[in-house]
């Protein structure tokens, strides 16, 4: 692995190197599972082109085009004068490399049940969500090809990685070795079984969140959304005081139930502060099509049958939609935990991990502050005041406070809240400020300071 790593770096088989070599057209075509533009871009079979074809595109190359470091890696097989990949080896944004099973494409054989998927959009989303603060012990639950460990290696003193799939643990070890990451403690087992009675400062997981009747793919499916629910409920027993957990999850939208209550109910008995964000919702048909494409089942004989069986499974559970999102938990040690559940489908500043701690702080502070009249508030940096009105009118029809940083929320407010945003500088208490503002712009009635709590929770004002 050490020899191979040096060759990959010397050849510029990196994220930037591959992107530059393929170009935007070929990259866009690959996102549509079209290889021809990428094959044209690598037709001359120079050292980088050979590696891209072999491990990124998964097509054979002549033996003469690859050096001994590749042939001796154990990740390829030779058949006559051609060499083909037995695994998918991808550069990652951390500067490391990930080893997984070859990417499945339409027309390929069905996936084996213990298939180890490579890193993709979900892996990157989780890495963007995780807090950036240094920690002592971290757990990557369901490590897969080991991608989250590459992100944790620089900020955790000790990392434990687990997976129910022994092949995943085997390939993850190759990923870490190839990336120069050492000291990871890898264990095999389901959920928290491999770390029973152990505590961590940080837990991350990209779990098998796909909801459905189950197709036997360990890496993505665990039946209904009960797996994510159980993961959430069992997490507090493994968090140190102040410890955080970050998960990706899917959840059902069930007829007659509010999804906020459904998912919030998973967390309200945990004793942890929590923040749940839904980023997207799909109807059952969209959802089934997405994951059948993911397994390259389109065009197969079993496609229609599997599609129909999956929809029938959703009908039995009265599922109207499926939500995609993330869950963050913090063991705050309080007897009064706060749970915030919301839908955010607009673009947010990335990485969320840069400010996730302040989001949790804001939600908890707004909920727990006993009284706000004496609070010293200041307006969040980068906040805009947008006013919409008729030409020449003295008063606007609408006033919107809009964040230009972080979660980039927007909220319609009244003249009092807008005026407050213009004068909060952390020097005067909220109560007296509201008194003055009410006299100047209101009808003389003094607003209740508790009405500002939602604006504190959502980060418009900092306490």
Descriptors:
463 residues, alpha/beta, 19 strands
Description:
The protein contains 16 helices and 19 strands. Helix 14 (415-423) crosses helix 15 (430-441). 34% of the residues lie in helices and 24% in strands. Helix 7 links the parallel strand 6 and strand 7 (156-163). The chain is α/β, with parallel strands linked by helices and 463 residues long. It has an eight-stranded mixed β-sheet with strand order 8-7-6-9-10-12-11-13, sandwiched between helices.
Arithmetic mean pLDDT: 93
Provide the low-confidence segments as ranges.
Answer: none
Q: What is the share of helical residues?
A: 25-40%
- Morphology: elongated
Distance between the termini: 51 Å
Assembly of the depicted chains: single chain
- Global structural class: alpha/beta
In total, how many beta strands?
Answer: 19
User: Total helix count?
Assistant: 16
Radius of gyration: 26 Å
**Largest sheet: spatial strand order:** 8-7-6-9-10-12-11-13
Biggest pleated-sheet summary? 8 strands, mixed
- Estimate the strand proportion: 15-25%
What would you say about this model in short?
The protein has 463 residues and is α/β, with parallel strands linked by helices. The chain has 16 helices and 19 strands. Helix 14 packs across helix 15 (430-441).
Helix and strand layout, with pairings?
Blueprint: H1 2-10, H2 15-31, H3 36-41, H4 47-57, E1 61-62, H5 68-71, E2 76-79, E3 82-85, E4 88-91, E5 97-100, H6 121-129, E6 135-141, H7 147-152, E7 156-163, H8 166-178, E8 185-188, E9 200-205, H9 226-234, E10 239-254, H10 259-267, E11 273-282, H11 284-294, H12 303-316, E12 319-330, E13 339-343, H13 356-368, E14 376-379, E15 383-388, E16 398-403, E17 410-413, H14 415-423, E18 425-429, H15 430-441, H16 453-457, E19 461-462
Parallel strand pairs: 6-7, 6-9, 7-8, 9-10, 11-13
Antiparallel strand pairs: 1-3, 2-3, 4-5, 10-12, 11-12, 14-18, 14-19, 15-16, 16-17
């Amino acid at each position: 692995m050490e020899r191979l790593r040096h060759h990959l770096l010397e050849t510029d088989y990196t994220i930037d190197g591959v992107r530059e070599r393929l170009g935007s057209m070929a990259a866009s075509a690959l996102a549509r599972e079209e290889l021809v533009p990428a094959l044209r871009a690598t037709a001359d079979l120079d050292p980088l082109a050979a590696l891209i074809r072999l491990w990124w595109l998964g097509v054979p190359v002549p033996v003469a085009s690859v050096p001994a470091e590749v042939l001796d890696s154990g990740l390829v097989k030779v058949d006559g004068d051609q060499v083909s990949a037995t695994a998918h080896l991808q550069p990652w944004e951390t500067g490391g490399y990930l080893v997984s099973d070859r990417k499945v494409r339409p027309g390929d054989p069905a996936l084996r049940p213990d298939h180890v998927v490579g890193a993709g959009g979900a892996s990157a989303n989780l890495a963007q969500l995780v807090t950036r603060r240094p920690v002592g012990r971290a757990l990557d639950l369901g490590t897969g090809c080991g991608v989250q460990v590459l992100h944790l290696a620089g900020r955790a003193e000790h990392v434990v990685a687990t997976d129910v799939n022994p092949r995943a643990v085997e390939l993850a070890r190759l990923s870490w070795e190839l990336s120069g990451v050492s000291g990871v403690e890898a264990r095999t087992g389901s959920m928290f079984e491999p770390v029973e009675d152990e505590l961590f400062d940080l837990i991350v997981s990209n779990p098998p969140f796909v909801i459905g009747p189950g197709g036997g793919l360990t890496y993505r499916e665990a039946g209904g959304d009960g797996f994510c629910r159980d993961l959430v409920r069992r997490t507090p027993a493994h968090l140190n005081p102040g410890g955080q957990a970050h998960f990706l999850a899917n959840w059902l939208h069930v007829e007659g139930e509010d999804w906020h209550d459904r998912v919030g109910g998973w967390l309200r008995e945990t004793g942890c502060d929590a923040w749940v964000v839904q980023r997207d919702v799909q109807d059952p048909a969209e959802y089934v099509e997405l994951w059948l494409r993911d397994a390259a089942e389109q065009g197969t004989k079993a496609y229609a049958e599997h599609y129909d069986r999956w929809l029938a499974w959703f009908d039995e559970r009265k599922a109207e939609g499926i939500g995609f999102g993330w869950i963050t938990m913090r063991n705050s040690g309080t007897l009064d935990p706060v749970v915030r559940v919301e839908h955010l489908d607009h673009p947010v500043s990335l990485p969320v991990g840069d400010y996730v701690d302040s989001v949790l702080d804001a939600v908890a502070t707004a909920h727990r502050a006993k009284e706000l009249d004496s609070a010293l508030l200041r307006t969040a940096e980068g906040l805009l005041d947008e006013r919409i009105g008729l030409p020449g009118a003295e008063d606007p029809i609408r006033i919107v406070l809009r964040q230009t940083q972080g979660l980039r929320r927007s909220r319609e407010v009244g003249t009092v809240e807008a005026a407050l945003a213009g004068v909060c500088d952390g020097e005067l208490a909220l109560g007296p400020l509201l008194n003055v503002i009410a006299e100047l712009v209101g009808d003389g009635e003094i607003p209740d300071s508790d009405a500002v709590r939602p604006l504190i929770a959502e980060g418009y004002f900092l306490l």
